[in-house]
């Protein structure tokens, strides 16, 4: 087992990668105080704390489900005990960039489900929207409260080899993971109480009350005590722990589709005292399963007649139905243009360069340089449908290329970016692992509010760039601190 000095002295960042703790010749300023504190522990004590963290996650039932060979395997969410640190100055840029992006995306959703102005002006190609499987014509013309479509988002960021943050993708439908952000902080309080207290880390625990306040404000009727529910697909959903966690934290009912009915264009919840009208539904059910009368006719997860009540304005649905068109990975490339078009501003946070494989010239360029590229399915998540060009075997690539050429609209490509690394406690020693960041933003009548920190997802496999929990990833607590007076 490593002693403290050897534990940190042996930490070697990967060549050509921005490491967030260690520069080329020294520890970076934001990490210095935590570095000094952790050196006092040594590997044995850190190992005990890692084991304690695992036990806390186990006791709390903090799990997710991996679907493999059609079997759901429930697992404890992997947690790394070394915090990831972001300065207050960096966070200010992130906040500004995400708020700007959400305002533009919200205006885009309002536009394409009403006037189509951005399509008429040829800023976004009309055929791109028409071919998007998540462009939901059934909600065209529906008026939503305060013209807000994206109430809850988890915008994924990466830090490139230049040390700057970039937008990787937008999650605007039913973004998950916020419960892990909150539980990560609670576990950190248990294993590093003194370090956390002395570091003046900005808090994240106000997320549930912030969300609850926004949900209440979105009630369509001017009533003093609106009823809000969280609609879950049920216990077999991979994020069911999060659904129960959030419902409990906000003090609202957790319901399934069978618990709700629609009568006279209004939604009611079945209770032991009879029917109770529901005014706001925070849904964690995808669009296509929400209403069997409109979408999938065999869906058992939604509520028959829900879209009719939604159109009548008797119930609000969070996030709005039809948001998937705005986080299609092919549409993602046009968000900087949306910002310029709707806001007359330059983007604060840049996109990762993105190529559309529907474009023959771009497709040929990607095929010629596949070893430098990652190809992504435009409407899959969780790390699925992704081809790492530097690792794929020749035979596998020939098969994949044939599929892409048959359906090029379904794929985009981006250069392989060496995500920044942070120190992780792996097998009794510190080792660099690649990370991304998912801050959680809430958009209500009073504007955009972003919890300082978000979920840092870690590619726990050495050398891997895939951070998704379903692909072997984990997470760690994210500290936003103000420099240099903290610590």
TrEMBL record:
- Residues making up the signal peptide according to the UniProt record: none
Under the heading InterPro entries, the entry gives:
ATP-dep_Glu-Cys_Ligase-2, CP_ATPgrasp_2, UCP005522
Q: Which residues form the Circularly permuted ATP-grasp type domain?
A: 83-459
| Pfam families xref list | CP_ATPgrasp_2
Q: Which SUPFAM superfamilies match?
A: Glutathione synthetase ATP-binding domain-like (SSF56059)
PANTHER family per record: BLR5612 PROTEIN, SLL1039 PROTEIN
Protein name in the entry: Uncharacterized conserved protein, circularly permuted ATPgrasp superfamily
Mind giving the lineage of the organism this protein is from? Bacteria, Pseudomonadati, Bacteroidota, Chitinophagia, Chitinophagales
């Amino acid at each position: 087992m490593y002693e403290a000095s050897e534990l940190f002295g042996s930490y070697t960042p990967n060549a050509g990668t921005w490491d967030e703790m260690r520069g080329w010749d020294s520890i970076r300023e934001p990490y210095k105080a935590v570095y000094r504190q952790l050196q006092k522990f040594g590997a044995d004590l850190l190992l005990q704390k890692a084991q304690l963290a695992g036990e806390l996650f186990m006791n709390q039932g903090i799990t997710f489900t991996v679907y493999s060979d059609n079997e759901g395997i429930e697992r404890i969410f992997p947690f790394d005990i070394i915090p990831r640190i972001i300065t207050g100055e960096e966070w200010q840029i992130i906040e500004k960039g995400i708020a700007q992006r959400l305002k533009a995306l919200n205006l885009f959703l309002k536009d394409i489900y009403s006037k189509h102005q951005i399509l008429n002006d040829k800023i976004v190609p009309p055929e791109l929207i028409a071919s998007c499987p998540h462009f939901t014509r059934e909600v065209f013309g529906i008026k939503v409260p305060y013209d807000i479509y994206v109430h809850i988002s988890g915008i994924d960021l990466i830090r490139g080899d230049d040390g700057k943050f970039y937008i990787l993708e937008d999650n605007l439908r039913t973004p998950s993971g916020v419960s892990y952000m909150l539980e990560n902080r609670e576990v950190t309080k248990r294993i590093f109480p003194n370090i956390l207290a002395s570091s003046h880390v900005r808090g994240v625990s106000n997320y549930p009350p912030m969300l609850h306040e926004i949900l209440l404000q979105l009630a369509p009727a001017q009533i003093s005590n609106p009823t809000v529910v969280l609609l879950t697909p049920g216990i077999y959903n991979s994020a069911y722990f999060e659904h129960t966690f959030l419902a409990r934290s906000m003090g609202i009912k957790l319901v399934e589709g069978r618990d709700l009915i629609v009568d006279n264009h209004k939604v009611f919840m079945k209770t032991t005292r009879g029917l109770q009208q529901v005014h706001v539904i925070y849904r964690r059910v995808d669009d296509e399963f929400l209403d069997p009368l409109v979408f999938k006719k065999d869906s058992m997860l939604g509520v028959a007649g829900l879209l009719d009540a939604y159109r009548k304005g008797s119930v609000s649905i969070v996030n709005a139905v039809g948001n998937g068109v705005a986080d299609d990975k092919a549409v993602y490339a046009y968000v900087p243009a949306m910002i310029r078009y709707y806001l007359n501003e330059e983007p604060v946070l840049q996109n990762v360069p993105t190529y559309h494989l529907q474009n023959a010239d771009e497709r040929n360029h990607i095929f010629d340089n596949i070893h430098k590229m990652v190809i992504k399915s435009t409407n899959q998540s969780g790390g699925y449908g992704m081809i790492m060009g530097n690792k794929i075997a020749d035979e596998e690539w020939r098969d994949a290329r044939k599929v892409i050429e048959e359906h090029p609209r379904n794929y985009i490509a981006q250069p392989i970016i060496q995500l920044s690394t942070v120190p992780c406690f792996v097998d009794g020693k510190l080792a660099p692992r690649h990370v991304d960041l998912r801050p959680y933003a809430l958009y209500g009548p009073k504007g955009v509010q972003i919890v300082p920190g978000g979920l840092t997802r870690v590619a726990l496999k050495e050398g891997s760039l895939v951070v998704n929990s379903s692909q072997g990833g984990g997470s760690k607590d994210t500290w936003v601190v103000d420099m240099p007076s903290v610590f």
